[in-house]
Design goal:
globular; FMN binding; mainly beta; single chain; oxidoreductase; 176 residues; seven-stranded antiparallel beta sheet; three-stranded antiparallel beta sheet
């Protein structure tokens, strides 16, 4: 049995935000784009790394959104929002959608759905969703999204965020 490095060190208090951020970065997560059309028909959106599946019945996923996000109030308006699960090769697109608002869709040719949802082309999955619930949670909101329709390609590897960088999944052989 292998012991991880530093297991004999004392635990850090949660008031040490740098230690807390390092601990959170130890958990890999999928990365998504959350996008829709604005009132003028232009795409608006953002990247989110705190995304997870929640329920099959009803079909729900969740995304965590930082309090004070300038983009979220426009995205949560009534109607449909598109969730695109980034593919492994889309790290640059993910960074762009996390950057300055006016540059987020530069060199991206989004897919516009008739529902108003906007999707990133080439993603491993597209989910057309409506806001089911928004729960205040510290410095974020936990947003539950009800999936209305979807398409996916499980053969396309997803983008994974771990230790503050993008990673790839590796298939491992079963050990006998």
């Amino acid at each position: 049995m292998t012991t991880s490095m530093g297991a004999d060190r004392p635990l850090s208090p949660v008031t040490d935000q740098s230690a807390l951020k390092r601990a959170f970065s130890c958990f890999p997560s999928g990365v998504v784009a959350v996008c829709r059309r604005d009132d003028a028909g232009a795409p608006i959106g953002m990247s989110a790394s705190a995304f997870t599946t929640v329920s099959l019945d009803p079909p729900l996923v969740s995304v965590c959104v930082r309090n004070g996000s300038a983009t979220w109030p426009s995205l949560k308006a009534p109607g449909t929002v598109g969730v695109s699960v980034f593919a492994a090769h889309q790290g640059e697109l993910c960074r762009r959608l996390a950057g300055p608002t006016e540059e987020r869709f530069t060199d991206i040719h989004p897919i516009f759905d008739e529902s108003g949802a906007v999707f990133v082309p080439g993603a491993t999955a597209h989910l057309a969703c409506t806001v089911f619930s928004e729960i205040p949670a510290g410095d974020h909101f936990v947003v539950l999204l009800a999936i209305e329709s979807l398409r996916c390609d499980p053969t396309v590897d997803p983008l994974v965020f771990h230790a503050s960088s993008f990673r790839a999944l590796e298939a491992r052989r079963a050990q006998i």
